[in-house]
Known about the structure:
- The chain has 158 residues and is an alpha+beta fold.
- The protein has helices at residues 9-21, 126-134, 137-156; strands spanning 26-29, 44-48, 60-64, 71-79, 83-87, 97-100, 104-113, 116-118.
Amino acid sequence: MKNDLSLSGEALIELMRAVHSKGLPFRFNAGGHSMAPFIRDGDVISVSPISSRLPDPGDVVAFLHPETKLLCIHRVLSGNKDAFLLQGDNMPGKPDGVIPREAIMGRVTRVERRGRRVRLGLGPERLLIALLNHRGLLAVIRKHAGPLYSYFRRRQRP
């Protein structure tokens, strides 16, 4: 659309910081496939500033990757008050490493796909997803569940 504003890189990060400084969530389109199927390329995500409660295992956070300096959205596998182990749901065996607390920009609090809210992945099941991901089992489940999911989706169409 000609009225859309597209930002990336440092401009997106600075705008997120400015919005968060007002205590407000920042909404933008997710890019990439590292969090599929829970967050897909093009989904609209809301990232809220980190409050006094630190991210827990299972939470999905926005962070600046210490090596690449890119904004990433991944799930917390474990952590303490100083650092967190993060990994994308679609990146088996590839954790981001230990990410310092200062690199965490916010917590993903809402995901929208085609105008509808997506709840799966951010609710109480988020801890189970993190555990399965940490153990390398999420990819195995996705591999075997994918064809079954596709089969039932095809059968539901009129």
